[in-house]
Amino acid sequence: MSDTDAVDERHPAIVPRRVRFDWAETPLHWIPGEPVATHFINTLHLLLPAGERWFVHVYKQALPLIDEDDTRLRQEVKGFMGQEAVHAYSHQGVLDQQMRDRGLDPRPLTRKIEWLFTTILGDRPPLRLVSRKRWLYVRIGIIAGIEHYTAVLGQWILDNRELDDAGADPTMMDLLRWHGAEEVEHRSVAFDVYEHVSGKYWPRFAAFFIGVTALPLAIYAGAAFLCAKDPTLHGVRPRLRDYRRAVRRNLLPSNGFMVSAARAYLKRDYHPSAECSTRKALDYLATSPAARAATANRT
Questions:
Q1: What is the pLDDT of residue 112?
Q2: Sign of dihedral through CA atoms 272, 274, 277, 278?
Q3: How many CB atoms neighbour CB 244 within 10 A?
């Protein structure tokens, strides 16, 4: 890599890209012949709009905790919130257009997911003994752990070629890769905020498990819901062998991949800048149809 190609892995510039996607030509099963694998990935569309809006809500509360003279971190948080807001809007478009227009209504489950983030993970602590400030720290720690996973999954989708070989819809792949690239780009922000306001290892350890212990259950529940509501599948349920077959084809990340990512995060000397590649993220964003159109519209 030449000097002109070098990037700051810890502090890249974080700028929201106001992307738009047209779902008119994207089929319901956007991985041909793989409806169950499609719906495993589609679970992200169920979780992310409410989750990303929750991130922004929490970080609006976290921003005053960052020292006024730490202008770089404050600016990165504002860029992070801007990117996450666009992510929420973009995945909401999949729910409202790509799914509902093809007869799959996700709202019965997304309303429950919205309730989870606004009530269970809302501003009021679940236990009276926990102060609002301490509960804010916990939620900041939960987001730091989730953001680690969104970054490594973002790198996975950037590197993946098997989905393309399987004929995955190019618009959906651009959404996933644009989003993944921005997750790689801003991967240090949530962790740096946690370190700034707390920095304690064991609360970070505990918050990580609060955030990710339920992840496999949420993904399976989401896939099961989508399969049950899919008007073309007639109540098919996702089976373990469906997941394993998709993993063998590298259409989904493996359990081993997810465990390895957890082990990396739980190291005491962990920092997100040592994971993933900002260069690869920026290389994709330079070619992404949606990101290029957003840049052209901005200029």
A1: 96
A2: positive
A3: 13
Judge if pTM exceeds 0.85.
Answer: yes
- The greatest distance separating any two alpha carbons of the chain, rounded to the nearest whole angstrom, comes to 58
Q: Rounded to whole angstroms, how far apart are CA atoms 273 and 284?
A: 18
Rounded CA gap, 299 and 290, in Å? 14
One-letter amino acid for residue 68 of the chain: E
User: Vertex 143, ends 134 and 266: CA angle to 5°?
Assistant: 95
C-alpha 283 chain-centroid distance: 19
Average confidence (pLDDT) over 162-185: 98
Token duo for residue 167: 């004929």
d(CA 131, CA 194): 17
Q: Of all helices (H) and strands (E), which one includes residue 227?
A: helix 215-229
Task: Provide the token pair at 130.
Answer: 């926990």
d(CA 14, CA 80): 7
The 10 Å Cβ neighbour count of residue 288 is 20
Do 225 and 109 form a contact (C-beta atoms < 8 A)?
Answer: yes
Under 8 Å CB-to-CB from 104, ≥6 apart: which residues? 28, 226, 229, 230, 231
Rounded CA gap, 128 and 266, in Å?
A: 29
Q: Are 91 and 48 in contact (CB under 8 A)?
A: yes
For residue 245, the tally of other CB atoms under 10 A from its CB is 15
Residues 6+ apart with CB under 8 A from 189: 14, 73, 76, 77, 79, 80, 147
13-61 per-position pLDDT tens digit: 999 999 999 999 999 999 999 999 999 999 999 999 999 999 999 999 9
